[in-house]
Amino acid sequence: MVTDKKTTPPQASEKSTSEPVATKTAKAVPEKPSASPKKPKKSSGTDSKKAFPWIKTLLVVLLIGALGVAGWIGWTEWQTQLESRAGISESLQQDLAATESKLVEQQQLNRQTIQQQSQFIGQLESQLKDQIYSMNLRLNSQAERILQLGTASRGDWLLSEAAYLIRLANQRLQVERSTENPLAILENVDTIFVQLNDPELLPVRRALAEDIAALRMAGKVDREGIYLELEAISKAIKQLSIIEPAPASQTPEIVDAATDTEQTRSLLDSFQRFSQKLGQLIVVQKRQQPIEPLLTSNEQSIIQNNIFLLVEQAQSALLREEQVIYRASLEKSAALLVRYFQLNSQSQALIERLNTLSERQIIQGLPDISGSIAAVQTMLNLRQSRITDGEPQK
Length: 394
Hints:
Layout: H1 2-28, H2 38-151, H3 154-176, H4 180-196, H5 202-217, H6 223-238, H7 257-262, H8 267-281, H9 297-320, H10 323-340, H11 346-358, H12 371-389
Helix pairs in contact: 1-2, 3-4, 3-12, 4-5, 5-12, 6-9, 6-11, 9-10, 10-11
């Protein structure tokens, strides 16, 4: 349609140009009227033939331009498609790489879980094996024990009881830190061996006799007596005063002058009696230590509380068998009594008793009585081996 629009004007121009040429020829040659209309046709044909190659070239150029534009458009579309395909391929490659990495991670996790499960299974197997082994040991020990109970005699029962009592004596000795109860228990065990009257028990009785002798020779610490005596001393210290009150028998007697006048005694005799009475009231004592000034009531209570706390500290050290703390506490309490209670004669008795108690040994010596345990255990093992071997019991 474009080419038609462009070609129509040249035809119109050719017609317009052909018309004046025809008129000119008609005017110039009037004699040949018949040939005049043909010449214009020939000139118009030649003009149209001359204009037709330009139309062709124009059409060819337009066609070539259209083909170029179409090719360019197609080439651009092809490039965009290639780019889009390249982007899609890159995204696909990235997705493939991500999925491969996820697969690798999942494989690693699966391997780790498999390893953990294998380790857990191995631990369970080892635990089950240990439990089975321990159960077998218990079953064997119970079977041996049932066999022993079935074949045990009265002597075996008494020997087991003696072994239990000897262990109990050792425990009581270590816990109570006293020799009385362990000694009584071991003496009871000796009576059991006397009842058995078995010559094989002679080594056991020898070890038992040595342990009994060691307990009897061990010194005894009277903790209860010392504790109660310290308690009585602390109560006496609370009631102790700085100055001893004067008794009623030592109060000075006032001589009435009226009675002397009634009895008509001489002035010399009354003066002598007065001097004698005065000499009885005044007593001079020499002290080597300086006398401390009198304390107030608050200071006196503080000193008494300090002495009381020191005595309590000595009591706790007595129960824990701490000889150094016990002695130091009693010596400090006696020193406070000497320093602040010089004017009271009752404090001297308390000081002497505290010094005596501080020299006492409060650590209980405990002998070793494990020989009888070893001897009884040896005898029990010997009898057990005889039972397992099937030897008859005596």
